[in-house]
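I need you to check the entry underneath: sequence plus fold tokens. Let me know what the token row says about the fold.

>
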Amino acid sequence: MNITKRRPVSVGEMLTSEFLEPLAITQKQLARAMGVSRKTVNEICRDKRSITADTALMLSTVFDNSPEFWLNLQRRNDIWEALNTPKRAERIKRAVKIQPRTLKSSPSHHHVQS
């Protein structure tokens, strides 16, 4: 994944500008089709709520696309946000790589009968 300094398109932006507006669907209609509250849809559209796998599956059913489409949008934004929020980025930079230990030869568990 290529992470840039420019914020990626959010789920809310995509949902509103590429689906709801062109298809003339209201948030209330989408909420009804998804079986969720209008508040939930509104929070997603305003980027106040992240989507879950369940939400991605519902959106993919409503708009006849893949849940991966929606989850990838969310994932890109989550990663961008983590890397571009100073406190979070600093904590991430403190992580260190774990070096695997070399395997020691273990004693044989075979018993020889005489």
